[in-house]
Amino acid sequence: MALVDSDRSRQLVLFASLGVIALLTGVRVIKYEPSPWNWVAIFAIGTAFIFGPITWAIRDRLPKERRERLSYVAGGVALLCVSIVLGLGLIGGRPLFFLDVVVLGNLIGFAVASLIERIIIPEQLRGTTQ
């Protein structure tokens, strides 16, 4: 029994889930005493750049098979970055602070890149027609 059949439904579930995570993380970030918004902005800009222009350029220049292999490498690097962030949090004595800042910044950057892709980027560069 498939609850989510179409691509549109899957995207809706994905963005709704990420929105709930961003909301809960944002509530925790607001409560932190030294304001971490500059760090959130740095991570948001970095993520928007990675999921925006870099991804669009890769989609335009590489065939699907190479992009798939590259996605495995990128996933491994992302997992390595998670352990680095956890280590920095443990060294600083506030692992949840670092995780919240990174997660919120990444979700904001991903949302901005997705909105820009849907609003501004032509259909050929989105990768939906390939």
UniProtKB/TrEMBL annotation:
It comes from Natronorubrum aibiense. Keywords: Membrane, Plasmid, Transmembrane, Transmembrane helix. This is Uncharacterized protein. The keyword Transmembrane helix applies. The lineage of its organism: Archaea, Methanobacteriati, Methanobacteriota, Stenosarchaea group, Halobacteria. The chain crosses the membrane at residues 12-30, 36-58, 70-91, 97-116.
